[in-house]
Amino acid sequence: MVVKKKQIVECDLIDVAFGGKGLAKIDGFAVFIDQSVTGDRVAARITRKKRNYAEAVVQELLVPSSMRVDPPCPYSGFCGGCKWQFIDYPHQLEFKRRHVAESLEHIALIGGTTVHPTLPSHHLFGYRNKMEFSCSDRRWLMPHEMNTGADISFALGLHVPGTFHKVLDTRACLLQPETGNRILNTVRSYMRASDRPVYGLRTHEGFWRFLMLRHSVARDRWMVNVVTAIEDRDAVMPLADLLLAQFPEVVSVVNNITARHSGVAIGEREIHLAGEPALTDRIGPFEFEISANSFFQTNTRGAQQLYDTVGRYAALKGDEKVLDLYCGTGTIAIWLAQRAGEVIGLELVESAVTDARKNCERNGIDNCRFILGDIKDTLETIHAVPELLVIDPPRAGMHKDVVRQVLKLAPEKIVYVSCNPATMARDVLELKAVYTVEEVQPVDMFPHTFHIESVARLTKRG
Ligand SMILES: C[S@@+](CC[C@H](N)C(=O)[O-])C[C@H]1O[C@@H](n2cnc3c(N)ncnc32)[C@H](O)[C@@H]1O
User: Fold this and answer.
1) Residues 314, 332: Cα–Cα separation, whole Å
2) Which fold has domain 1-66?
3) Which of 130, 298, 334, 347 to probe ligand 1 with, by most ligand atoms within 8 A of CB?
4) Which of 19, 284, 402, 462 has the fewest Cβ atoms within 10 Å of its own Cβ atom?
């Protein structure tokens, strides 16, 4: 059978592919179907047809898979925030483990690597310590809101996959603790009532751009970061006052300002409006100060499992030199410092390096130092070969110049931490010329999404 765009096809789902879509085969031709899972039988509408595969959406669920559960969130199936709520948790964990293993097999071209069962997240909901909600002048309506006369000129919430300019007016997100939802709704009411316009993601005009919330799990305290297009203290200061008056849990309100068109909630400038300038949280025995724009693992309890795994794979004896690439606020460096001689962290973002230094002081750690700059440039300045290299790059993985420099430096051991199995596998494809991947531990930091964090232990051959 030849599959055509807009055609409705009946098919059985045989697997879930990397990226989270269900996989069906029609006369051997691969069809990736959104919001479906192994064991489903569906009538699907083809939305895209390529030479080797097609994409489709479920038109009707004919026979539901035994892996299906009722998603508790009303936005499930519409919101891009978490797309796997309908799959039971044990199967989510196994799909993630397999995706890590398959990435190594198909991209890094190494078979038989030990990929351990995924470590589950302690909390399945309310686990995120950071949420970013977008403002938009075009609201995406849920089916029950159609033809109700609902105002579509304002939204504050999460994106619908496939549209960049329309946003759900999210009243509650189950991935954040409940107080976050109350803050979200207070900010929404304030923005709606204000005389400053909401930002248009197509027109790039308007004032209110994003709301970013951070939660300290250890202290149950919140930071509110309001992102606006221009500086206008008269517009944001009363909101800061309102939040502090209404929420005893809110200890910090900041305002990031960005004129960039990109959909990234990071300002070129930050104004500290009220309370503390940063939030403090704890992972294991250590306290960390986190600024609005610094990277901090988004699942605090999951971070402890992740760093425990890093510590186990590092297996330090006490006098080693460790290099921590992409060190963020110094969390891994601090985690390893007591069992190392010296740890040097390399990081691009200035506020993260400032936080990293403060975090060392706060935790009484005096054998870490941090170098600010792009690793492409700063790694060249390191001449002494460390015993251990920790690499924890962003989703895009390592720049190819950095991979080249790592191979030149060639430490005995590498612990590679990754939030993207595909780019980890791409980097391993280069590193395998010198290194063996001994084992990989996936750690689930992001339940109900297809994202997976993993830690790989690499040793130098020969
Ligand atoms: C996945 S985070 C890891 C942070 C830290 N290891 C942790 O666990 O919190 C990646 C970090 O790499 C930094 N980064 C991204 N590109 C970089 C580059 N070219 N050079 C240096 N650091 C970079 C980001 O600012 C971010 O802090």
Assistant:
1) 11
2) OB fold (Dihydrolipoamide Acetyltransferase, E2P) (2.40.50)
3) 347
4) 462
